[in-house]
## 1
Amino acid sequence: MLDLSFRPNLPPLLRGGPDDVHTLVHYKHFIFGSETSQDKFNYVDIGVFFNTIFTAILVTVINLCFCYPIAFYMAKVASPSTSRLLIISLIIPFWINELLRSFALRILFAGEGVINNVLLGTGLIDTGINFIAQDVALYTGLTYAYILLMIFPLYNAIESLDSNQLEAAKDLGSSTIRTHWRIVIPHAKAGIASGCTMVFMLTAGALATPVVLSSPNTYWFTQLIYQWFNMNDNWSRGSAYSILLLTISVTFVLLMMRIFKVKIGEIIR
Amino acid sequence: MSADVELQNISVTFGNFYAAKNVNVKINEGEFFSFLGPSGCGKTTILRAISGFLDPSEGKVLIGGKDMGGIGPNKRPTSLIFQNLALFPLMSVAENIAFSLEVKGVDKIERRKRADELLELIALSGQGDKKVHELSGGQKQRVAIARALAIEPQVLLLDEPLSALDLKLRQKMRTELRAIQKSVGITFIYITHDQGEALTMSDRVAVMNEGELEQVGQSNDVYNFPQTPFVATFVGENNAFHCKVVSTEKDFVKVDFDGVHFFAKAGGDNKKNHNFKKGQEVILFIRPESIFIRDKSNKFENNFSAKLKTIEFEGNLKNIYLNLNSKMDVRFSVPNAVDTSNLSLNKEVDLTFSSSKAVVLPSGPLAVD
């Protein structure tokens, strides 16, 4: 695919012929747009690309904030039976296909969907909220889609912390927040990094959820790739776009690991 | 500053199970006080109730005369040293020690200064920048003590902190702990199942069994004057003769053991001897070191003979096991220096012990060993 991304899009008959040379035309297209375009840069594609990356970061952060308390509760607060029950109730929804889960969320968030009906029915709002146009549905869907990949690394990491350390910190006068900041989070750093990496990578590369839940104005970069491959039958350009997404995602993850001083070995552990 | 600790009618229940039952004791200011008992006797429960990690189901904990009900562990003037120490592995030694000061918002330079002072107290000067895992077991131990002392607690609670160390280090740490307690002058409450630790370090010892206090007193009182059969057998070694009372005479009791009559002190609590009735089932306790081979220089009121079974070499002592009758073994010990070559297997040995070293107590459960 890497090779394909550097070749022009030729009809099958010309492949391997004199025109089949290495070229940067697809990467150029991503940055400067098509030759017929009036704009200096390919604002649409670049916009979609960075929107995808930033949204993926946002989703990862939301996911972390949401999962950390759950994971901590399961690992250190709840009794073993409660924690098992929680784990099961987290896992069972994921027996259902991702696409179906996305459609289920769409039913909840639709203009005349369950949430709007309840809110309208109880008189909390006067007019329905367009969750889909405002991308609330998309963010929720993406966050929920990979929640397990965040919770389990966190749960494992926090579970391995000696509970006496929490009590020792408390005994030494530490507040709950400080105990988390100084004891739990440093201990769980590898788990946090591992969860964030997976969630970020998968969110940036998600396709089904954005297709079902994004507003008509929001495009996910994978949708572009899909289009180049399937609708425009331009595998070379699709490859080039995929490589771009992969490269940026990996670079971003490595950068974050460098900043937070996590080694790759710790993540895998 | 130091404070006294008073436990008033403390009971802790888990469902129908009493982890602690009606515990009443006052621990004095500046005292080294130990709770001694087998595992599962409720001593850790008591410690957690004092530190505030556990609310007693009934009763009150008073520290310095103040009721601690509803006050969390981070607000109590106590500091706890955990069995596994629970040092923070990701922090340096100095950061560990100064953690409680960091919590209080003391600035970095001041924190470091205080950490260095405490490192000096525990003889680890200049090791503040090391990681915890770079220290040896005994050093970790001392860091845990320094960390607990950094918040300047009025009461220091220690939950079997020496149990993970090897014998030599444990003995050394006993002396060190005692010295640290003397120099800081605060109340130490120590939990252990090791009677050696409790007896050597403590001003007073409380022996616990099945959630209840069996006896509270100074080390030598607990050892020499046990008040219950449990204390008699849990603290140190003891021979237990199941006898019947023949007669009583002031502080002494005459008992009958399979036709042999013995004289022994009547056991009791601090105030009063037990009331023994004729024919009552009792147990006579005599320690192995108080039984002697009968000869010209050793002749006491109580005499009996038994068949030699084995001689066990323990180093400083020789433990000699004898078969008294089909039911019961007797054990006595002599210093290693004593010549035992004339003792041969299955030989009848004449033994003697003083009635002032033996105690008679009403029948009750013994410590299982």
## 2
Amino acid sequence: MKLIEAIVKPFKLDEVKDALLEIGIQGMTVTEVKGFGRQKGHKETYRGQEYTIEFVPKVKIEVAVNDGQVRRVLETITRAAKTGSIGDGKIFVRDLTAAVRIRTGETGESAL
Amino acid sequence: MVKASAQRKTIVVGVVGVLSLLAESWGNQVWAQNAPLKVDTGDTAWVLVSSAFVLAMLMPGLALFYGGLVRTKNVLGTIMQSVMILSVVSLLWILFGYSLAFGPDHGGLIGGLEWVGLSGVGSEPHPVYGPTIPHQAFMLFQLMFAAIAPALITGAFAERKRFTSVVLFAALWSILVYVPLAHWIWGGGWLAQLGALDFAGGAVIHISSGAAALICAIVLGKRRGYGTDYMAPHNLPMTLLGTGFLWFGWFGFNGGSALGANGVAVSAILATHAAAAMGSIAWCGAEWAHRGKPTVLGVASGAVAGLATVTPAAGYIGPMSAIAIGLVAGMTCYAAIVWKGRFGYDDSLDVVGIHGVGGVIGILATGLFASKAVNAGGADGLFFGNPSLFGIQLLVVVVTTTFTIIGTFPILKLVDSLTGLRVSSEEEATGLDLSQHNERAYS
């Protein structure tokens, strides 16, 4: 099992969600986050005084999947979240050692 | 128009002209009227409405203009300063401020105490202060002016001054600095006797508040985190609303200074509006060229810069002169706030850059653009063949700035010894709203 973390532009959230539902992903967790990468924030100017806003609002989507789905999910998120301009975000994949469905007590891939 | 070399010569001629005008100007012009004075209902109605216009400039105009520019935690404290200054100065003015500023002249320096508690200031017109309106209407109008000057200064020490020290400072400053200046220029004092022109307060209000703001910003020091923390305005629509009230109220501020519903009032309002419009475009354009984007705050600031700058000239100039003044005001005041960063003082809401710089430009521009064709009760400026006026106006700038700086510093030191000037570091981090007033604007 893998946990996929995708940091994307907030306005792309709905498109990513719809695309993931279409390929059969049944759940996800979404968090509003702030951060920066190469995009390096933005500038605001008030009466000639410039402020650099380093932390840009983003959305983090977490999806737990079985190993066979990883490639497809990565392709789907990349396609749906891409604008082609700087600041589109990143996807991280990490190993998932256990999963439990609380209601039924199922474990492993059947809990996903 | 006039060449640069001629302008330099003019200043010399002007200073000489000061002496020659000393004898003639004031005496001839004003106290001469002997016929019984009759109240004109139209004039009175206009001055009363104008007083309400000027009230709206301060409350809610300036209160919202400044309130939107500070951070969320300081908006109530900032608004509170304007409102409380309005109330305190209003009472001082009725009790004795008006008498000291406009009462019978003593040596050109200060008014007498004859009108304390407004005794003798009634429904009869005063021959100089509006021969067609009740004397009390003039007093009410002047009361609003007196209230707005110390409120303007609060922008310089925004987000860090103890509330008690704000009120005490405003009261002392109003009596010790504003009252003498008002007397010298408007109350028959020595600058008026020289022929100085300040239609609605370029020197008395804007240079004085700008110069005082500079001293306040230097003496109080910077806000904690100035230059590193994010201190952007918390609510620009609120600032825009305030700008709207200021622009609206300025029609009464300048138009009412004609003290009648007449042609001078109309041309003053036209000049006011033209300068505000040009000022907003000029500031916005300068910022657009300099920083790459036209900003809402730029348009608002440029309008206020145009309004402040045209104030001393409004009743003496034509519309084309007003546009020229607005253009210079918008670009120069923008340059002033950009350069502020290099001087290292934290004039938080740019009172120096907008009111101080605007006031100086306006007083000098009056010496250039004033025309008797617009207002026979005024004078011709340098561009209309009378270079001596420019010299007098230059003197007004120097005197107002110097007197305000000399007067403001000891007041700050006195208030510091009585109440302390700044809030504590912890209170400053918490914000004025909670630390000074136990309230929060947005809960």
